[in-house]
């Protein structure tokens, strides 16, 4: 597991060239590469993007490269259009002041844009020198992501353990939930029938107006209806499956960020459903614990590649 935040820097000095590479990254839902190169070395950009794209899956990655050449082939050319424009302007000024003096060659050559200097870097040679520096800088950058990812993974696993413990704790109360529903229904039926005079009449010698067997069947029928509405067995089963898959992704997927984010959405859905059905205080408390743990996990996943 790797973090999406990291930093690496490396430089190298050759007799005719100095090269430095700086790599840093931030959180992002997708892979975004920003390459900062001197204009004269723009031909190297595609190779750099390919190098980073093969090694990074998510995050906003910025790379800055600096080249300081001590000697390099270059060509000098005269921009004739700019030269003539300067000459005409200077002659016009001389005419205004009625001066017979013409602009000197030294003056014309010193004006901006008259001489154009073009460096001719050897892209193949520069890539050969850049690649080992880039590799070393990326190794530092990747090691930083590994260290941060390991710490983040440990924190995620601790909260995952809280989720799993809460599921186990809630599972203990599933039988109690069914018994609670049945007992509550029985008490409500008894209270209703007593208040209506259908059961246990106060007149001595009278017999109950409601058959006990019918009464029990009715309670069982109503219990079944409520259990269909309030049972959490299916939610616990799906939640357990999601947590198992979550732990497997943590262990086996080097870049689990997107998959874990999806699983968090599914886990959150089951936790909310369990919370809406909670009729036992201990279950409600466990749901609160799960929500807190899940929120911490989702916060950490924003840093995972």
Broad structural category: alpha+beta
Mean pLDDT, rounded to whole units? 83
Rg, Å, rounded: 38 Å
SSE topology string: EEEHEEHHEHHHHHH
Number of domains: 3
For the largest sheet, list the strands in their spatial order: 1-2-4-3
| Fraction of residues in H or I helices | 55-70%
Major pleated sheet? 4 strands, mixed
Strand content: 5-15%
Head-to-tail CA distance between termini: 7 Å
Q: Could you tell me the number of beta strands?
A: 6
Q: What is the number of helical segments per DSSP (H or I, 4+ residues)?
A: 9
Indicate the low-confidence ranges by residue numbers: 200-210
Shape assignment: elongated
Give your account of this protein's structure.
This protein has 9 helices and 6 strands. By secondary structure, it is of the alpha+beta class. It has 3 domains: 6-72 and 121-146, Ribosomal Protein S5, domain 2, CATH 3.30.230; 74-119, no CATH class; 149-301. Strands 1-2-4-3 form a 4-stranded mixed sheet. It has a two-stranded antiparallel sheet with strand order 5-6. The radius of gyration is 38 Å and the shape is elongated. It starts with 5 loop residues before the first strand and ends with a helix. Mean pLDDT is 83; it is low at 200-210.
Describe the secondary-structure layout.
Layout: E1 6-13, E2 17-26, E3 31-36, H1 45-53, E4 59-69, E5 74-78, H2 80-96, H3 105-110, E6 115-119, H4 123-172, H5 174-196, H6 212-230, H7 233-252, H8 257-277, H9 281-301
Parallel strand pairs: 3-4
Antiparallel strand pairs: 1-2, 2-4, 5-6
């Amino acid at each position: 597991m790797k973090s999406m935040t990291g930093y690496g820097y490396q430089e190298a000095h050759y007799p005719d060239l100095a090269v430095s590479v700086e790599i840093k990254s931030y959180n992002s839902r997708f892979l975004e590469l920003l390459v900062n190169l001197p204009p004269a070395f723009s031909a190297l950009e595609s190779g750099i993007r390919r190098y980073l794209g093969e090694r990074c899956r998510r995050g906003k990655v910025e790379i800055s490269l600096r080249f300081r050449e001590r000697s390099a082939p270059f060509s000098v050319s005269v921009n004739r259009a700019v030269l003539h424009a300067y000459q005409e302007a200077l002659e016009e000024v001389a005419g205004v002041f009625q001066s017979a003096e013409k602009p000197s060659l030294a003056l014309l050559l010193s004006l901006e844009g008259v001489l154009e200097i073009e460096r001719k870097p050897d892209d193949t040679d520069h890539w050969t020198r850049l690649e080992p520096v880039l590799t070393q800088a990326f190794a530092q950058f990747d090691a930083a992501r590994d260290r941060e990812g390991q710490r983040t993974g440990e924190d995620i696993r601790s909260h995952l353990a809280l989720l799993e413990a809460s599921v186990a704790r809630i599972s203990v109360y599933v039988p109690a939930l069914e018994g609670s529903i049945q007992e509550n229904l029985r008490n409500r039926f008894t209270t209703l029938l007593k208040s209506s005079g259908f059961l246990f009449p106060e007149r001595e010698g009278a017999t109950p107006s409601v058959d006990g067997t019918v009464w029990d069947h009715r309670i069982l029928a109503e219990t079944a209806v409520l259990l269909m509405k309030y049972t959490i067995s299916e939610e616990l089963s799906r939640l357990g499956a999601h947590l198992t898959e979550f732990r497997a992704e943590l262990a086996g997927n080097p870049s689990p960020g997107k998959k874990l984010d999806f699983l968090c959405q599914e886990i959150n859905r089951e936790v909310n459903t369990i919370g809406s059905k909670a009729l036992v205080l201990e279950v409600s408390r466990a749901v609160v614990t799960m929500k807190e743990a899940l929120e911490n996990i989702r916060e950490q996943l924003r840093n995972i590649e």
